[in-house]
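Worked Example 4.2. Consider the chain below.
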Amino acid sequence: MADTEVCSVVSDFIDFLNASPTAFHAVDEAKKRLQKVGYEQVVEREDWKLEAGKRYFLTRNHSTIVAFAIVFYPLIFCMLKYVVGNGFHIVGAHTDSPCLKLKPVSEVKRAGYLEVGVQTYGGGLWHTWFDRDLTVAGRAMIREEKGGSVSYSHRLVRIEEPIMRVPTLASHLDRGVNDGFKVNTQSHLLPVLATSVKVELNKEFAENGLAEKTTNKSRHHAFLLQMIANKLRCQPDQICDFELQACDTQPSIVANAAKEFIFPEGLTIFAYLALIDATSSDNDLENESGVRMVALFDHEEVGSNSAEGAGSLAMLDALSRITYSFTSASKMLAKAIQRSFLVSADMAHALHPNYMDKHEESHQPKLHRGLVIKHNANQRYATNAVTSFIFREIAVKHNLPIQDFVVRNDMPCGSTISPILASGVGICTVDVGAPQLSMHSIREMCAVDDVKHSYEHFKAFFHKFSQLDTEISVDT
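Applying the procedure from the previous section yields the following structure tokens:
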């Protein structure tokens, strides 16, 4: 890939990240990009009328999204490449990241400060959230009245400017802070929104009478509600409820002396860029016999046990409805699943130069060295010899670097959506990830080269898996 193409992929990736401060925004950005290249939306609560040769996507809770391309390629005698029962070729990832989410009652007043009550989401490195320029983003439910009728709509909201901060305690008041900074997530992590004096003197706030309307009746600071309402172009009392989280206002960027690293918040969006480019024209699909799919799930960081998580029926529902759009034979779904392959694409722990003892000598993934195949004998990752070989062979055929990782025996191992989907759906799975540092920090870190490698590898998977699969024999 030429340098200009590399820059284009990296730029596109950063644009995606900067448009996606929350899972809701990530889905919205993916939706816009899919529609731009001809994908049509289907709705789970309605009937589907799918056609071979078309591209579709669905969303669930607007925080999970599944996109798929059903191949139609005219051959001699008007045969179709796609036949019911053929497999699904899937890259799966997630939309969420560890963060601070606003509590159902977020109004906190202490010592003359207006603070925002938050709850920790996922296993974040919470000390990295101190002294950052924070804002809020998410979704709100809005009540609208037109012609005497009332309706309620889901609306995305994002305040771009920094509006709050979690301040650290001065070292003079905590002499042992450098011996070990321990965060009490209940009492230390509350962002400061404003001081009571300034809010009471705020002209717009006072003229709107918000203090009288909401001070003792609202679950949230009236000042915060007014800022959200201004963004949504509605009145504060039209906001029925919301799901908001604290976000860093510093954008994802290419940085460092050699411009070799990316400093983002959240890094699991490579797959959509590869799917879009692997299905944007009929020529891209000319050798495809299956259904190409990308699925991004919410709530991976907290176990995936939700209606829109990988632990739900979302994946199986999608596979079922696609299959049954072309046949009523129930056996075809089981056949299709057994012919399917899932690439679980999360991230991987790169070797840290200051903590080299955290990796064993034979498994030290490095930045710039390509995707990492993740293994775990206890099935924290779902990789096996067959699935590892398939992904590694794709790398060999395309001259792509590939690495391996297994956690040390004396350390706990994280997990991904892969064992959940492998056991719940029964689909062959490989766990992979781009190497990164600062995982679960508010500012993560990966290499520019690995964005390119990830994009190329996923795109190669979509283009080459059908042929490679015909060459492999296991349960025969």
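The longest strand covers residues 134-146. The longest helix spans residues 448-469. Compare this with Example 4.1 before moving on.
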